[in-house]
Design a protein that fits this description.
It is found in: Cell projection; Cytoplasm, Cytoskeleton. This protein is of the alpha+beta class. The chain contains 20 helices and 19 strands. It is 46% helix and 17% strand. The termini are far apart.
Length: 634
């Protein structure tokens, strides 16, 4: 090596003794040490005066005496060595991956050749440029280094051709997506890629990893050239060419560095995408950026119980997720997406649950509990650290702004925070005045104060239960207009949930429409405001009744003949016949008691209503149990 020969000749008039000392006996070592002006005792004091240890100490000694010319040579030689390794990687991409995939694409219909071309872009041109021009030029120059110790002129001549990397860099992001897509879509594509990846030349690295190397190569040129320029004397003939080369290469490196950053961001987003089970495709987008993620506890809106949740905060959305059982790593299911625009983060104070804060978005409000005060501070101050995340901070306002009603999800007042209806001020109880939430303002109100419905923008314009005040503000209608509209609406269009909440009786019934047809389950309701009409719905949440039966004048047969199911009864009037059955004798008697009054034109007394109210809890349990069993046993 020219650099080492130069160093040896400076340090010793007899460098041959040093070379012999690397391979021979302690006597020769002493002689070589003396030729270097170093005490032989120092060498002889070493544990092993053999080749390996002596090489280590001598190389350390020489490095301390390394000249500037040596350093320039080392940089140039490193450029050559890394270029050789790089060309071998380009050969792998162009002559192995690309060639094998193109052969398959052209011979069969497993995947189109166009896809392969889009993945590898202009890799063939890049490989040709480096293997036939850059590498041979560097090899020739390093062989002539003793007479021509410079590389700036070579790079200045070749640097303009690095513009070809622009096409590869611009296509890189799309290429990564195509590789992922076709690895999932085509078994043959996947098999070819995985087979090549097992080869020794691949070094146990993936195709994507090798495709990143051309992106990383230009910044590597820039770093080596900057180091070379620092060591280059001001009056060197190679300086001007080196500076021009560096200017061109730095421009190309800027684009490559940007692509590397995009790749790193995309890798993070792909990891998130996989943790979400591959169901949130809009996450893997170049414009997205993961800002923060972490475990959190969510406090229930009604009773402050806490549930384990996980948050992913991106620059344009907050993903509120629940853990999902999986045998292949951590997985989550997205429960809610909250847009960043207009989001508010409020610090809250809960004596029973420390470290709480509230996230309020147009879609939903979440009250969350961090694991520590520090974790809480990191979440609520994330905007300071990440200016792209436009979260607004505000104090908690117990009263929603009028302009935001229906447009932003409200903070629900917890059930245990109030004992009176927040509108009519009547006390709640478990039987006749239960708690309900207005979906617009979040207040806890009774059924009477929440019998209105309005479309809410934050909930995809769905018709939702609201209190009277919110109804008037959102719709612009008065209470009298609402009542008039209800009168105009046909009885068949009355929702099951609406009449069930204010009913004399409501429960499941088995209904036999015709003797030739099978029994089917219906939801029966007798509303308080129409207590002589039986409404039949397909399910408790249906928005329209299947049919209505005006009960006045009907005859009741408590034990109809020819009906082979227990707890049956029949209603008849002229040519109209309705056969029903219940699940128990007690349930049958309750229905018969109320229907008996209705067919006579009588209304239920307060005592009847109280008895029925007591049974509504059982009715609710029955409904829940039926729904549960329907979900398990189709």
């Amino acid at each position: 090596m020219p650099g080492k020969t130069f160093a040896l000749s400076v340090l010793s008039p007899h460098p041959i003794f040093v070379l012999k000392a690397l391979t021979h006996t302690p006597g020769i070592v002493s002689q070589g040490a003396e030729s270097l002006g170093i005490s032989p005792k120092w060498f002889l004091s070493l544990p092993d005066p053999g080749l390996q240890l002596l090489q280590l100490h001598l190389s350390t000694f020489f490095s301390l005496q390394e000249t500037n010319e040596d350093k320039l040579y080392k940089i140039a030689n490193e450029l050559l060595l890394t270029e050789k390794a790089y060309v071998s990687r380009l050969h792998l991409l162009d002559k192995v991956f690309y060639l094998k995939l193109m052969e398959e694409a052209n011979s069969k219909t497993s995947f189109p050749a166009e896809v392969v071309n889009k993945i590898f872009s202009n890799i063939s041109s890049i490989y040709t440029f480096h293997s036939q021009f850059v590498l041979p030029e560097l090899e020739t120059r390093m062989n002539l280094w003793n007479t021509t110790p410079q590389i700036g002129d070579i790079l200045q001549k070749l640097a303009p051709f690095l513009k070809m990397y622009g096409e590869y860099v611009r296509n890189f992001e799309k290429a990564m997506e195509l590789v992922k897509t076709w690895m999932d879509r085509s078994l043959q594509f996947k098999a070819i890629v995985e087979d090549i990846q097992k080869q020794e030349a691949c070094g146990n690295l993936t195709l994507q990893h090798h495709m990143l190397e051309p992106i990383q190569r230009v910044p590597r040129y820039e770093l080596l050239l900057k180091d070379y320029l620092k060591k280059l004397p001001q009056d060197s003939s190679d300086r001007k060419d080196t500076e021009k080369s560096l200017e061109i290469i730095s421009t190309a490196a800027t684009h490559s560095n940007a692509a590397i950053r995009i790749m790193e961001k995309m890798k993070i987003l792909i990891d998130v995408y996989e943790m979400l089970g591959g169901e949130e495709e809009d996450i893997v987008n170049p414009s997205n950026e993961l800002i923060k993620e972490g475990q959190i506890l969510k406090l229930a809106a009604r009773n402050s119980s806490s549930q384990e949740r996980y948050l992913f905060l991106l620059n344009n959305m907050l993903l509120y997720c629940v853990p999902k059982f999986s045998l292949v790593g951590t997985r989550y299911t997205v429960r809610t997406k909250i847009g960043i625009e207009g989001m508010q983060v409020n610090e809250t104070h809960n004596k029973d649950y420390p470290n709480t804060f509230q996230v309020s978005g147009k879609e939903r409000i979440l009250e969350l509990q961090a694991s520590s005060e520090q974790d809480k501070e990191e979440w609520i101050k994330v905007r300071v650290e990440h200016p792209h995340c436009c979260i607004l901070f505000s104090l908690i306002s117990p009263t929603p702004k009028t302009a935001e009603l229906g447009r932003r999800a409200p903070r629900w007042i917890r059930d245990n925070e109030v004992t009176l209806c927040m509108k009519c001020k009547e006390p709640f109880n478990a039987l006749t005045r239960r708690r309900h939430h207005c979906r617009a303002c979040g207040y806890v109100v009774c059924w009477k104060c929440s019998e209105y419905k309005a479309t809410l923008a934050y909930d995809s314009n769905k018709l939702s239960k609201v209190c009277k005040d919110c109804y008037v503000i959102i719709t612009g209608k008065t209470d009298s207009e609402e009542k008039e509209e209800k009168k105009r609406k046909g009885v068949m269009e009355t929702e099951a949930a609406e009449v069930s909440e204010n009913s004399v009786i409501c429960d499941f019934l088995h209904y036999l429409e015709k003797a030739t047809k099978p029994w089917h389950k219906v939801w029966g309701v007798l509303p308080k405001n129409d207590a002589m009409v039986l409404y039949l719905y397909g399910a408790p949440q249906d928005v329209k009744a299947l049919t209505t039966i005006p009960l006045l004048g009907y005859a009741i047969d408590e034990n109809p003949r020819g009906v082979d199911v227990p707890y049956a009864f029949k209603l008849t009037q002229s040519r109209f016949i309705y056969v029903f059955a219940t699940d128990s004798e007690e349930q049958k008697q309750r229905w018969l008691h109320i229907i008996n009054m209705a067919v006579k034109g009588e209304t239920a007394t307060e005592m009847d209503l109280l008895d029925e109210a007591k049974s509504k809890n059982q009715c609710y349990i029955t409904e829940t149990l039926h729904n549960f069993l329907d979900g398990i046993i189709p």
